[in-house]
């Protein structure tokens, strides 16, 4: 992972912790690579993903659904 992306993740985690957030999903990109940070608890991560999709534009939900239905690799 690019050091700048890693720094962005760490800075975001620190800022969110200072704001009182207990769990967060952080996704960063430099336009070429993407990386992120998720909670260790799989259930909490799933709840956050569903919450994000509930707020996402319909096109985003449809793109994710299509990706998963076509056998998208989640590993």
Give a description of the structure.
The protein has helices at residues 3-18, 42-55, 58-69; strands spanning 26-29, 34-37. The chain has 75 residues and is mostly helical. A two-stranded antiparallel ribbon has the order 1-2. The chain is globular. The mean pLDDT is 89.
Short synopsis of the structure:
The protein is mainly alpha-helical and 75 residues long.
Write the element-wise H/E pattern from the N-terminal end onward.
HEEHH
List the strand order in the largest sheet. 1-2
The chain-level structural class is mainly alpha
Question: What is the arithmetic mean of pLDDT?
Answer: 89
- The radius of gyration computed from the alpha-carbon positions, rounded to a whole number of angstroms, is 14 Å
Helix content: 55-70%
| Number of helical regions | 3
Count every beta strand, where a strand is a DSSP E run of 2 or more residues.
2
Calculate the terminal CA-CA distance, rounded to whole Å: 17 Å
């Amino acid at each position: 992972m690019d050091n700048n992306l890693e720094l962005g993740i760490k800075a975001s985690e620190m800022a969110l912790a200072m704001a009182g957030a207990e769990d967060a999903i952080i996704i960063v990109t430099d336009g070429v690579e993407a990386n992120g940070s998720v909670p260790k608890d799989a259930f909490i991560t799933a709840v956050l993903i569903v919450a994000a999709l509930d707020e996402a534009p319909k096109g985003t939900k449809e793109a994710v659904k299509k990706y998963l239905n076509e056998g998208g690799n989640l590993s």
